[in-house]
Amino acid sequence: MRDPDNRLFGYIALLVITFIVLPLLWHFQGYLLFHVLLENICILLSLLLFIIGNRTYKFSKNSVILFLSTSFLFSAGLGCLHALTYKGMDLVSGIDSSMATQFWIARRFMESTGILIATFLPNRKLSFTKLALFYAAITALIITSIFTKVFPVCFIEGVSLTPFKKISEYVIIFISVLTLARIKELSKHYKTDYLRLFGLAILSGIIAETVFTLYITVYDLSNGIGHLFYLLSNGLFSIFVIKEGLDKPYTIMFHEVHSQAIRDSLTGLYNRNGFYEIITSAFQRAQRYSGSFRIFLMDLDNFKMINDKYGHPEGDRALAEFGKVLIKSFREYDIIARFGGDEFVVVMEADNAAAMLARERLDRAVYDWTGSNPKRYGLGISYGIAEREPGSNMTIDNLLAVADEGLLKAKAIKHPERANSNRNESWRLDRYTED
């Protein structure tokens, strides 16, 4: 529940800032302060996108996020120049009202094309150095063209927007529509709710560009509304990148670390810790619904012979093969674990008939396995089986103790010389070292 709550908090905070705080600031303090703060928020969001996309790439290998965040980084530079050269700022001498609009159009071209290109990049390996050099060169050319007045004029004071500016806005809208059409392709790589977020961000950008074609002066209502929807678009992209670029790779890393902690590295089965973690919930469920349990505790007969004759690497291969035999012999939802050495345990939520069928399958599979490889001749399997019927108060450790006693008796029948010499603790240690 924590994840959805945090995400909802992010949405609420974004909406409050966009449609309550900034409009109130605009109303009481004027358009210029409103514009400066809004642009600073957008620039900070772009820097956040870059930091997340760049620093998590070595874990996530998410080329979409890396490309997207890099394009937003350099567009943030153009956004900074857009804010500094805006009418009324009076920070850069010798400029007209068109320059801020030129930086805006260049910025939006860079962002929209970057988003579109990113949709073609899932599973592609990228070099951040080459990507950054490419965007740095493009950004430098744009800035040079604007300051040298090569870049087309976008706004004429007292006249309004130029045809180039309006056409550019429509081109940006067209690029964004193409990106929306690409979302279905991304569904192969991203969760549906993440893609909805991605689509809403693009849609907000389309609304912003549409409104930007309507203003007469740079302080117009339509210009301010367009900036608000642009901020909403940036905020939604930020949430998307945080979820996909930050939360997802670290969640994957956590699951991998957890998996390594509960899985046996040799066989891939649960280890002792994993067994107790899984069996606890299964046992509680069986108690709640009056389920029955069967526990198979088993080890391989004459396993020491493999290590002595062929070496420990061959013994490891035999254990790994036996793990696969267990997986094939039991059901997908049965719990299979390696307790250590050549000792394994299987837990079935089943009645006695189903358990006996599973034992027959395992006996046949072991027979086929040992008969197919000369290096496995002589291997066998001994069982100890414990049963917990519905309503029983037996704990997991009780069942294991009963199964362990049954295994000892089975081994005693196969190795009477050991049982006669010392039936108790020394023989129990013998199981872990010799067989």
Describe this structure in words.
The protein has 435 residues and is α+β, with helices and mostly antiparallel strands. The protein folds into two domains: 2-261, Up-down Bundle (Rhopdopsin 7-helix transmembrane proteins), CATH 1.20.1070; 272-433, Reverse transcriptase/Diguanylate cyclase domain (Alpha-Beta Plaits, 2-Layer Sandwich). Helices cover 70% and strands 8% of the residues. It has a four-stranded antiparallel beta sheet with strand order 4-5-3-6, with helices on both faces. A two-stranded antiparallel ribbon has the order 1-2. It is elongated and about 105 Å long.
Helices, strands, pairings?
Layout lengths: L1 H28 L1 H25 L1 H4 L2 H22 L12 H22 L9 H20 L7 E2 L3 E2 L1 H19 L1 H4 L5 H21 L8 H42 L9 H17 L4 E9 L1 H8 L1 H18 L5 E6 L2 E6 L3 H20 L8 E9 L7 H19 L1 H6 L3 H9 L2
Antiparallel strand pairs: 1-2, 3-5, 3-6, 4-5
